[in-house]
Here is the input.
Amino acid sequence: MASVLLIEDDAMLRRGMQLALSRHGHDVRVAGTGEEGLAAIETSRPEIVVLDLMLPGIDGVEVCRRIRRVDDLPVVMVTARGDDFDVVGGLEAGADDYVVKPVQPTVLDARIRAVLRRSVSSGEGVRAHGELRIDTTSLTVTLQGHVVPMTPIELRLLLTLSAAPGRVFTRQQLLEEVWDHDYLGDSRLVDNSVRRLRTKVEPDPASPVFVQTVRGFGYRFGPV
Amino acid sequence: MSGVRAAAVLGALLLAGCSIPSTGVTGAGQAPTGVAPGPTLYFLDDDGDLQPRVRETGSLGTVADAVQLLLVGPGGSGSRTGIAETSVTRVVVTTSPERVTLRVPLAPTDVTAAGVDQIVCTAWASHVQHGGSPRATVVIDFTIPTARSARPRTCPLAPEP
Amino acid sequence: MRLRPRLRGLRARLVAASALVAMLSVGAAVWAAAASASRSLVDSYERQVVRSTVDQVSAVAPTLTYPPDQESLDRAAGAVGPDAVVTFRDRRSAAEARTALVTDALRGAVRTGDGVVTQRVRVPEGAWLVVGVPVLATAPDGSARPSGVEVFVVQDLAEVQDQLDRMTRTVVATTAVTLPVAVLLALAAAGTVLRPVRRLRDTATRIAAGDLQARSEPRGADELADLTRTVNGMADAVQDSVTRLQRLQTDARRFAADVSHELRTPLSTLSAVVEVLDDAVDDLDEDARESARLAVAETARLVRLVEDLMEVARFDAGTARLQLDRLDVVEAVRRTLHARGWLGEVDLRVPAPDAQVWAVLDGRRLDVIVANLVGNALTHGARPVLVEVRSEADDVVVVVRDSGPGLSADALEHAFDRFSKGDPARSRGDGTGARPTPGSGLGLSLAWESAVLHGGVLTGDNDPEAGARFTLRLPRAGAGS
Here is the structure.
């Protein structure tokens, strides 16, 4: 269904996960190290990367950071510990979502599908907010006339918020709407994606005007 | 509390120790003596023996008083004396507990042997009545001393030591 | 008495005892000296009076007419002194003297004529010395008999008393000066004894407060130094044991954490491949199919166990952090139930149909707690299982109650122990359902620790009406506020 690049150093897990994800209909390629993975991205152009954070050589966080530096390839990371340090490091490096070992293939499949889910054209036209223009038909965003590249998650986050300017969304609501988490998820996913979104669409990310924080509740779009 | 009580007891003891308490009757030595109706003088009876006789002068008087009265003579009492009559009766007496020294206005020739005993016994008796020792000896200084005159003598009537 | 409580301390007792001993010693020595001095003072005064009286009487006696007339008596009295009275039978000298102080005993002793007698008489006005002198009449043969003439001298001792009083005042003043010096010396002595004691106490206090490194330097070779060395030795032993125990415990915890960590990657592989296997069961024969299903179920169980062990390791290492979020607890509980397919199996009671109970909580941990409690009730208790969410003052309360026979006292006591017997995980899980039933034997224990981490409580008891009841109470404002 999707072309997945799995970067995982443990050969058994690599093979097992390849088998399971293939059962779920994905086209899975594998890489055993970060270097191999980065090279594979260049050659096979996958739609999504599933990245183990614990890798020999350059580690997962660094791989994620390098992927983010060149394009908006979605990344789901696999953390071995589930400790705050790993999760925060991975999210700050730009991962869109994460799963914790022991990994359930069904859960990983759900995450992959959610992260890759394309927004549906609402056909309502262009939402213009100052210099920010969101084309809900072609699903493109321009700032000062330049196209802003985004991952599907970032785009859905922006579309969800801007659909109802001024309305406050809790983090849990956003997790459901944007990440398809069916019950309580990690709100740091939202916070990190909001931070990345701001660097892309806000003229001054330090004092945002489009994606605003409502302390103690969540986020809202505008009012502009 | 025990400290306070101890201090109080201590204070009481201190004060009690320094005030003069009542006592019972305590002995404090020998009683003085010396009262008598008069001195005892020794004269001689008809046999020439020494005979004590109290001369009632009212008080004991001194040893010198007694010897002077002896020198004055027996008077009309019927006694005799072995001491020559003399107009000077002045006697000088020096006493210590064990010895009485008499300086008499007489020469040895003025006094018979019995007369010497008279003088010795009178002085001795007076000395004893004054509280002196009965074993005291008497030394007589005559006006003209001889080789043997100044020896210590004892009264023949004195109790044996 | 105000003194009593102050005497409780060791220092106060030492000082008081030393000062008392010093005072008593000084007092006793001074008193003995003063008493002896006063006795010899009075005695010598008395001897002097007696000698002078006897001398006077001896001098006047030979001149006394005997038997004496009134004139003689007066003359004799005058010769002896102004305080003298001379008597003969019932005659007496005319001059005034305090003859009232002459006691009958003294008069009798004089009458026997054995010798001079004295007596000290104390009356309110002061002390007096009475001297009784019988005058003897001695015969030339040396035999003496009382002459009947008696001389009494009544001498005022006020002067001697004055001297004694002055001495007493000096003694008291000296003692009073000595006392502060004694107290100062006692304080200094107490200090040298108490300083090591205080050091030792400070050390013991620090050890008791957890500073196992605390030691006192033993000084000298006395009993206190011995005690200090003993305490140091004890502290060494305690420190050794504690260090060893801590190392053992740390090792055990790290081992558990390492093991569960190492299990995660192979478990992930297992999870992946049994899922593939599960999809293929229809093509297998009966035995292989059952084996495949068992592999799937047991893998799921292993996964839960390892996840719980990881959480335990976080609590043990103190690295468990709350991921606080503001959320509607009614909605959160409903989702927990929904996610595990339990909505139809439990009776969810909320304050009102559309009620919301907002609280600042770690949503993932709330989910784990509620899932554990409800899973426990469904597996072990009898249905219906009641789940109630309500708001109480500053707390949000979640009650999970079943309709079974309730828990035994023993089970209640150990309900929150790790791998407790009452936990559903001790019985075989059914292995069905998309969401595994919580239970690794650690569920209730972890729920309890999560509640505590939130600043709340989780308690278990038996509902008077029916079944076991677990009550979760968390502060709505979030942990620590």
In short: Chain B has one domain: 36-161. Chain B is about 25% helix and 15% strand.
